[in-house]
């Protein structure tokens, strides 16, 4: 019989030790310090961050940790031991060479943040850096290894150039810096959910992020008190958010929003029914497939309404209602937004009698299941069996627990 694959999770102390070791092995000296930032799981509210909607994520206890030392010559040298990879990746670049699509690889998430912070004046004269990265955040699994990487380098660069850790307000300024690295340098048009979750996460809490009001409110997410857990099933069918599919969904919403409410405003400024009825006429006028436009918009509008109701259910500790919203959210992402792959659907169906949904951008990645702790073993077996029967990759699993946001480890 095959063993279930549980995703490896080190303690902060272990990550700190391993980042220092990698730094020493590679650069032959000691770092100035070690900083870390978590991945996140989005519990409900997907594909609404770029549309002024509402999402409820929390920061994971799985983190990406960076040992860093400043250099005086504007060069950046990086070594990264990514989870699951056998050999570490290495990279080197002059900071002055960084820009849109430069570099065109994984290191763009790191040097892109240094570049964006410099461009926005947060660290006007960014020196060079040596950086050693270790991580337990699965890559390309919808758990935002990208934001973990960006936010870890952002808090490190902030503290090394300002001499103090970022305050809450200064963390807020790091959000657009990290987003710019992802949007402009890497070229993934994501909407800011991930960076907020990674920077503002608090142990034991979920975050209600309102992208229209630009607020982050903490709500209790203490599943253990109810003998419940949040199981994450990574389908190991990796997604790529910069391959055009994500951008095409976002493109429609951006355009329809511009036409209906205007520049710099969000769809929340008009009634849902009004948005939906006007979208039909607009799509026909544009020569677009009105049924596609309508389905995409319906998802965005209803997912936001659903997530607001889910936030109330969490406040009231009404987990039965919350589970129902999770199911509906998945169905909407599948039928209206069409970002659910066969692998995700297989895991969703296998866990279907509990609250389950895909999480993150879709097109691969993970499914989450809210269930009693006593049901974990059977559910893991069912999801694994369904994947095996369909000839899909083997799933791996973790139990998601709300952890703290980006911070210095040592
Ligand atoms: P997700 O954020 O859901 O994991 P993305 O496609 O947004 O998926 O980001 C994954 C990309 O981020 C990887 O393909 C890689 O380029 C980069 N990345 C994330 N973590 C690491 C790491 N520890 N080392 C190197 N690159 C990483
Ligand atoms: Mg990402």
From TrEMBL:
Annotated Galactokinase N-terminal domain residues: 22-69
Listed SUPFAM superfamilies: GHMP Kinase, C-terminal domain, Ribosomal protein S5 domain 2-like
Keyword Cell inner membrane found: no
Keyword Kinase among record annotations: yes
E.C. no: 2.7.1.6
Organism domain of life: Bacteria
Keywords: ATP-binding, Carbohydrate metabolism, Galactose metabolism, Kinase, Nucleotide-binding, Transferase
Any Gene Ontology biological process: galactose metabolic process
InterPro entries named in the record: Galactokinase, Galactokinase_CS, GalKase_N, GHMP_kinase_C_dom, GHMP_kinase_C_sf, GHMP_kinase_N_dom, GHMP_knse_ATP-bd_CS, Mevalonate/galactokinase
A GO term, aspect molecular function: ATP binding
UniProt domain GHMP kinase N-terminal: residue ranges: 109-201
Primary enzyme class: transferase
A Gene Ontology cellular-component term: cytosol
Residue intervals of the GHMP kinase C-terminal domain: 310-385
Family affiliation: Belongs to the GHMP kinase family. GalK subfamily.
Protein name from the UniProt record: Galactokinase
Lineage, opening ranks: Bacteria, Bacillati, Actinomycetota, Actinomycetes, Mycobacteriales
């Amino acid at each position: 019989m095959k063993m279930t694959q549980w995703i490896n999770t080190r303690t902060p102390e272990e990550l700190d030790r391993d980042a220092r070791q990698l730094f020493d092995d590679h650069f032959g000296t000691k770092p100035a310090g070690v900083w870390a930032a978590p991945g996140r799981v989005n519990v409900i509210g997907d594909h609404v961050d770029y549309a002024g909607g509402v999402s409820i994520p929390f920061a994971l206890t799985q983190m990406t940790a960076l040992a860093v030392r400043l250099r005086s010559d504007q060069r950046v040298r990086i070594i990264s031991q990514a989870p699951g990879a056998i050999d570490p990746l290495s990279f080197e670049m002059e900071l002055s060479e960084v820009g849109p699509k430069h570099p065109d690889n994984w290191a763009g998430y790191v040097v892109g943040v240094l570049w964006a912070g410099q461009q926005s004046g947060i660290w006007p004269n960014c020196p060079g850096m040596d950086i050693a990265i270790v991580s337990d955040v699965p890559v390309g699994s919808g758990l935002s290894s990208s934001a973990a990487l960006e936010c870890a380098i952002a808090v490190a660069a902030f503290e090394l150039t300002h001499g103090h850790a970022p305050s809450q307000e200064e963390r807020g300024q790091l959000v657009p810096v990290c987003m710019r690295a992802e949007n402009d340098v890497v070229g993934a048009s994501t909407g800011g959910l991930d960076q907020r979750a990674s920077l503002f996460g608090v142990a034991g809490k979920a975050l209600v992020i309102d992208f229209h009001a630009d607020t982050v409110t903490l709500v209790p997410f203490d599943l253990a008190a109810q003998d419940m857990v949040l199981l994450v099933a990574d389908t190991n069918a990796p997604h790529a958010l910069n391959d055009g599919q994500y951008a095409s969904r976002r493109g429609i919403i951006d355009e329809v929003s511009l036409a209906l409410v205007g520049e710099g405003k969000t769809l929340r400024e008009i009634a849902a029914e009004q948005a939906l009825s006007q979208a039909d006429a607009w799509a026909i006028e544009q020569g677009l497939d009105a049924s596609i436009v309508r389905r995409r918009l319906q998802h965005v509008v209803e997912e936001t309404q659903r997530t607001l109701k889910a936030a109330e259910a969490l406040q009231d500790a009404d987990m039965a209602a919350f589970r129902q919203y999770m199911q509906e959210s998945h169905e909407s992402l599948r039928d209206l937004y069409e970002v659910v792959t066969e692998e995700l659907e297989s895991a969703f169906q296998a866990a279907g009698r509990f609250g389950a949904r895909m999480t993150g951008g879709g097109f691969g990645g993970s499914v989450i299941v809210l269930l009693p702790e006593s049901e974990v073993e059977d559910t893991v077996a069912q999801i694994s069996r369904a994947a095996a029967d369909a000839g899909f990759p083997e799933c791996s699993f973790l139990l998601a627990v709300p952890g703290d946001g980006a911070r210095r480890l040592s």
